[in-house]
Design a protein that fits this description.
Neuraminidase; 5% helix
Length: 442
Amino acid sequence: MNSSTLSRCALCVCAAATLLAGCGGLQAAGGTQGPVPQGQRPENPSSVSGVRPSPRSVRRASVTETVLYSFRGSPDGVYPLTGLTYFKGTLYGTTSEGGVYDCPGLDQVGCGTVYSITPSGTETVLHSFKGRKDGALPEARLIVRNGTLYGTTAFRGEKCPLQGCGTVFSITPSGHETVLHGFAGSPDGASPEARLLNVNGTLYGTTYVGGSHVGVNCPSGCGTVFSITPGGKEKVLYSFRKDTDGVSPESGLTYFKGTLYGTTVDGGAYSRHYYSHGCGTVFTITPSGKEKVLHSFGNGTDGIAPQSGLIEVNGTLYGTTYTGGSGHCGTGGCGTVFSITPSGRETVLHSFGGPDGHEPTTALLNVNSTLYGTTNSGGAHGFGTVFSMTLSGYETVLYSFGGSGQDGVFPESGVIDVNGTLYGTTWWGGASNGGTVFSITL
């Protein structure tokens, strides 16, 4: 069982669960369904420019992993699905559950927290979400703008019935939290699961569902791209409307030379096996809202279901797909690392195969033209890895989780680099099975 499936189950994804009942994406990754008819769309795309074979042997490096903190649930939070943000000597993050308040209408152990932690491991809760106006279940990494932290919650807020549609919030390093926007589902979107992006003082983000277009494959809406000012003025730039332009952006955006780049986990021009509604896309969108599909995943070996955002290195974009590739993990492949040019030429750099990890879900990190990332399962013990990779696709496993009983398991988020040390989180495991904050010294 993979961590993404577990986290979606544990977090009771309301609108997203409705979507997944109609779309093949993440259910297929878990391998729990039988085959779905292909429909009328072609199975094999012609846009794949190249697939590079993965190295046959698994290279491992000698590193030191340290658990800085193990979450307990109350009051410190539990299940950190997001990565960390570094600001003036302190690390900041969120937990998707836990905290000091019950979560009304949601079967969770608290509505989540914002916390800070020093590089030596001293943790402080800055805010516990109450699950009403201020939102609940933060799943996105925080960003910093002018000394203030900004983030999203995937649920609650005041504008949606029942479980709610999520919020955008700001919080100071001392813990003063302000709700900037509560989503309403339609037309402005619902369930923002990805980090925000600051471009010249305006914040840009995505919602997993909601928007002005619904259909058989996305009855709760197909998702949106939005902008919001630091003062809270929100604008929908684009509502995904049908399979061919992508469905359900689960990742944040990247800005390069005046254009925003992103991925959708479902939709696109091609279907394959369980992914009857498309295998996901890479898209571009201008700040004024003009969207274009750069690449539709679909022949299996080029990757399926990109849950991560993209990073830009020397004019080329790099990302991961949750499944697909030439490795063998059940029916859908173990996931990939790929590159894509701004003109849409996609190349698979590495296909995961199990011992080197599988199911990468978050964006890569570039440090001096070396890429770093995590897989939320696979590795030597089956519980996820931290890996490095050259730009040409040579992968090295830096660390495999699950070897000690308390080192954490399922690193759902990526890592950050602070002065040569990598910091990240696992959403499960640790001393209390509530997840961990860890560091890796190379």
